[in-house]
Design brief:
It is a single chain. The protein is of the alpha+beta class and about 290 residues long. It has a single domain, classed as Tetrahydropterin Synthase, Chain A (2-Layer Sandwich), CATH 3.30.479.10. Helix content is about 20%, strand content about 40%. Strands 9, 10, 11, 12, 16, 17 and 18 form a seven-stranded mixed β-sheet that branches. Strands 4-5-6-15-14-13 form a six-stranded antiparallel β-sheet. A five-stranded mixed β-sheet has the order 7-3-1-2-8. Strand 17 and strand 18 form a beta hairpin. The protein is globular and about 65 Å long. It starts with a strand and ends with a strand. The model has no long low-confidence stretch (mean pLDDT about 95). It is an enzyme of class 4 (lyase). This is 6-carboxy-5,6,7,8-tetrahydropterin synthase. One of its GO terms (molecular function) is 6-carboxytetrahydropterin synthase activity. InterPro entries: 6-PTP_synth/QueD (IPR007115), 6-PTP_synth/QueD_sf (IPR038418).
């Protein structure tokens, strides 16, 4: 017998890609359980599926940076600056990226690259270890939202957030609606999504000089004048990142979806000299609206 839950959760995360660099992503999760009925005539209570399995998935990959640990472009090592922190050094085709974060901000995936198959395999193993004995089978389906318009992938961190959004390299795959004087502008949406294609969004106030950053010795030997540096402390620990200019947008605000919607609206208002309404999404089915 089988039990299924569609749209169990959405995982928002970023991952390292040898070609694209750091990529923000959002995948919807469906689950099917195979098993015998328990003494309550259930395979598993829906409440347990929705809470426990969702919690396992969230803890494993949500709001984390996923690392393809068998990639030759990746180096991971313990931090010599902070306890229970790690360095991540990544040499992508698009440019190099260097980080220091608490260990809990990373998910190590047994793969040369991050894709739906590798993450599905990782999550299936993690969840299966925590299911009751009457559940003999588990099928996960990870899928992106169907978007019939332009969208962008972005990575960021929210230092003021008490939860996992504080992690400096998590992200989203997001669509956007842009209206100029009340009329939707497909051209403006396309242009903005090209501007923020596989982008890292950093807050101006988090930028630091090179002598203030905490990175690995390998990173410090390989940074260039094309890198910008950002660092902050949050409840989970210290976060540091070096990003190349070609992958970076520095904003004059925090990178909450509310303030990003306002940033986009203000920028476009200056460009078009018209009233601008921005419907900015943060992953799937959530976001903020700003009008300038």
């Amino acid at each position: 017998m089988q039990l299924f839950v569609d749209d169990l959760t959405v995982i928002d995360f970023s991952y390292l890609c040898q070609q694209r660099g750091v990529v923000g992503e959002s995948w919807i999760v469906d689950v099917v359980l195979d098993g015998d009925l328990n003494d309550q005539s259930m395979i598993l209570d829906f409440g347990v599926v929705k809470k426990q399995i969702k919690a396992i998935i969230d803890d494993a990959v949500d709001h984390k940076l996923l690392l393809p640990i068998h990639s030759s472009a990746l180096k991971v090592s313990d931090s010599t600056h902070q306890v229970d922190h790690e360095y991540v050094d990544f040499m992508a085709t698009r440019g190099s990226l260097f980080l220091q974060s608490p260990k809990q901000a990373f998910a190590k995936i047994e793969s040369k690259s991050i894709d739906i198959d590798s993450v599905t395999s990782h999550l299936t193993q993690v969840i299966a270890e925590q299911l009751p004995n009457n559940v003999q089978g588990l099928t996960l389906t990870l899928r992106p939202e169907v978007i019939n318009s332009d969208y962008y992938h972005y990575t960021h961190g929210l230092k003021l957030h008490d939860g996992n959004c504080q992690r400096i390299a998590h992200g989203h795959r997001s669509k956007i609606g842009i209206y100029l004087n009340g009329q939707r502008s497909i051209d403006a949406e396309h242009a903005w999504c090209e501007r923020w294609r596989d982008i890292y969004i950093a807050s101006e106030e988090d930028q630091v000089d090179i002598d203030q950053i905490e990175l690995s010795s390998y990173a410090m030997d390989n940074v260039s004048d094309q890198h910008k540096y950002f660092s902050y402390r949050a409840p989970q620990g210290r976060f540091d990142i070096a990003v190349m200019k070609n992958q970076l947008e520095i904003v004059d605000c925090d990178s909450t979806v509310e303030l990003l919607a306002d940033f986009i609206a203000r920028t476009l208002n200056k460009q078009y000299k018209q009233e601008v309404k921005v419907v900015a999404y943060e992953g799937v089915a959530k976001g903020a609206i700003a009008t300038v």
